[in-house]
Specification:
The chain is an alpha+beta fold. A six-stranded antiparallel barrel has the order 3-10-13-12-11-14. The protein has a four-stranded antiparallel beta sheet with strand order 2-15-20-19. One of its GO terms (molecular function) is efflux transmembrane transporter activity.
């Protein structure tokens, strides 16, 4: 029995010595690149215009009909100037015009009777027309003493108080035109250089609403921070809950390049060099390692390589590629489940 036991132990020891060692590896599946890329940036909702409103004539401010923060509608009366002097000027010219008009009637009758020359008649006619123009100009000045809102918006600032003198064209009100809101944001130079690939824009507000946007303008000059100002407009009508100054998240959609359209993403750990060429290890159907040549296009910030030469059905070895040989038998280790950390369940 002792001799038989020794023979059995020797046979087992010899079997273990001849059994081949199989390497264990982790694999991954190449991920085809999307045909569209998105970039997210922060933006600010702004009014379409900020209008400085002023009177078209000078005078003393007599009354303000609105206050800061009020919402006004187009055509609403905002302020008035003192109209006493303008009213007197209109009345004086009206008297002169009526008097000259009566005289012109008599002059026309004398001209028909050939009592005055044609030259005198033309002078009288020109004088009446000139006076009519002056009367109309003074009526316009009288009308200019009232300031109306040119559009819907909010009164953001009032620069004068009643009884102060105001020059013609001086800004009395700062009106925020909110009839059309827009979004402004700054983009880096790297994105500006890809502006020809922009395919669409979306805006998500702090309320959670998502709107489709259109490009209004893109400043071709960078600021001191090497950023380019972009302005976007809303394609559809926005609700009253959106106000100027509100933050928004802007998503910019870009079309992928030809390289990205045909490439697949792999971890950088799956790529290796052999005599200056780029390769990966593929797991064959018989569980052997096969070396395959791939073309490396570029790497991403997520430690991934964009390559061509593989498909989404390939099993690429991502860990354990050191010292592998062509046709070598391997064992694939199953990746642990994200919901079963440590394989406890």
């Amino acid at each position: 029995m002792t001799i038989a036991a020794c023979i059995l132990l020797g046979a087992c020891s010899g079997g273990r010595k001849n059994a081949p060692f199989i390497k264990s590896v982790y694999v991954t599946t190449p991920v085809k690149q999307e045909t569209e890329i998105t970039k997210n940036y922060s933006g600010i909702i702004e009014e379409a215009h900020c209008i400085n409103l002023g009177f078209k004539t000078a005078g003393q401010l007599s009354r303000l009909w609105v206050k800061e923060g009020d919402y006004v509608r187009q055509g609403q009366l905002l302020a008035e100037l003192d109209t006493v002097d303008y009213q007197l000027a209109v009345e004086a010219l009206q008297i002169q015009y009526d008097q000259l008009k009566d005289e012109m009637g008599r002059t026309a009758q004398l001209f028909q009777e050939r009592s005055i020359s044609a030259n005198d008649y033309e002078k009288a006619t020109a004088g009446l027309e000139q006076l009519a123009v002056q009367l109309e100009a003074n009526k316009n000045k009288l009308a200019y003493t009232k300031l109306y809102a040119p559009t819907n918006g909010y009164v953001n600032q009032i620069n004068f108080s009643p009884a102060e003198m105001v020059d013609a064209g001086t800004g009395v009100f700062e009106l925020l035109d909110v009839s059309q809101l827009e979004v402004s944001l700054d983009i880096p130079a790297s994105l500006y250089m890809q502006r020809d690939r922009f395919t669409g824009f979306e805006c998500q507000t702090t309320c959670g609403d998502i709107y489709s946007m259109r490009l209004l303008s893109l400043t071709p000059k960078a600021d001191s921070y090497q950023l380019y100002r972009m302005r976007l407009g809303f394609k559809e009508k926005t609700g009253n809950h959106l106000t100027a100054g509100m933050n928004a998240e802007i998503t910019i959609h870009l079309s992928a390049t030809d390289t990205l359209r045909t490439g697949h993403a792999l971890p950088l750990s799956a790529i290796f060099l052999d005599h200056g060429d780029t390769y990966v290890w593929i797991v064959s159907a018989d569980s052997t390692a096969t070396k395959r040549h791939v073309t490396l296009h570029h790497t991403t910030s997520k430690a991934q390589a964009i390559v061509s030469g593989v498909s989404g059905n390939d099993q690429v070895i991502r860990a354990g590629i050191r010292n592998l040989q062509e046709g070598e038998k391997i064992q694939v280790i199953a990746s642990p489940s994200e919901t079963n950390v440590g394989g406890l369940l």
